[in-house]
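Lecture 7 notes. Example A: sequence first, then its structure tokens.
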Amino acid sequence: MRGSVTVFTMNAHLPLLIVGLALLASGCATVPETGRSQLLLISPAEEFQLGLTEFEKLKKTTPISKDSQTNALVQRVGQRIAAVAKLPNAQWEFVVFDDAKTANAFCLPGGKVGIYTGILPFTRDEAGLATVIGHEVAHAVARHGAERVSEGLLLQMGGQALGQAIKTNSGTTQSIIMGAYGIGAAVGVALPHSRAHELEADRLGLLYMARAGYDPQNAVTFWKRFSEGKSGGGVEWLSTHPLDTRRIAALESHLPQARAEYQKARPR
């Protein structure tokens, strides 16, 4: 009897196992430039729609800055980064959210970038802002959000329910999506960010700012400044991310490649 129960249990779960293995096999992808393998179970089109929907919701619920100088600065830097970031079919949009208490930024699929005014005292200048925007855009290019959504949905609902979960966009799915794309501080949902993703976004962002004509050394300066600012409390951006010392050391190790890109981008 015990053996027959075991056989029944295995057979009952066999379809789900097969589906899960098929999803894993079909979902393998590679991050541009770094070559890291990743699991992606949603298409770029699905990801784009999810990002667009959440961005429109956020614009309706969060005050948008009317400061002309700040908006001009963000547009200028953002467009320079966008010009060198390879994000297929991107419809770039840069919005400054008027929230001085939130030192945060994000980039949703499709090129939807949000900058909270609380991060501006830390960026200070164009190069500092390029560091932040380059980092966030790198998340979108590397499809880190899609990777986290894929992993989260797979764990939460199982591979068999993944497609339906995306279509229905349930409350659970919305929570996973909002946390995965780094807007948890704004909507009250927080999922731990992968340290590997953050270091990868640092590396790619460093290249983007260099290719956009910003001295990559300024990224190290920004992170040191940001690290010192965090000691005063109240800063939520990247609070679950790598230690600042590790992040800065990793950035410095990538500076030679970034400097080479910067030299190519500088006008002769």
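Example B, a different protein, same format:
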Amino acid sequence: MVHLNGTGETTLRREYYDFYKALCKAESAMHEVTFHARDYYPLGENAFSDALEERREMMVSLVRLRQYIRRHVYELNKGKEPLPEEELLFGR
């Protein structure tokens, strides 16, 4: 919440925007990590399926966090002119 005794509006907007960008980058990087069954077979029959489920859970959590932070960015920016760095990502 932006108020007189709290963190400045521009600071909050920039920090949440930077956090959002970092989460987008992390999500993209996770998709780029090589993930193949051949790397798991020495660990047993279920190792790859277990790893696949863990990876899916991590991605779901990362996407949820990114969406949560995106809502914060949206609320902080509602009715405001975009910060210069925001125009590139949000196309305003």
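Note on Example B: The longest helix spans residues 47-77. The mean pLDDT is 90.
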